[in-house]
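Hi, here's the filled form for the chain we discussed.

Project: internal
Contact: R.S.
Residues: 77
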Amino acid sequence: MMDSYLVRSDIWISRVPILWEHVMIHDYSCLSGLDINRDTIIEVACIITDGSLVNQIEVGPFVVISHPTSLLVDLAI
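And the returned structure, exactly as it came back:
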């Protein structure tokens, strides 16, 4: 059995759950690439949806990582 099926000529629906990850990074290089010696992770979040992307199966964890105020002030836009 295939992992996805065609709904229209341009839309595929997955038969398996999809994991969505969000990682917020304080990037000193202005999004030019992650440097693990300089950049830091601010938060991480996960959501699992069904293959249609409509129904949430699981939500979380949402983790905010503590950092010094000086780093957070630098994030202000």
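Let me know if anything looks off before we file it.
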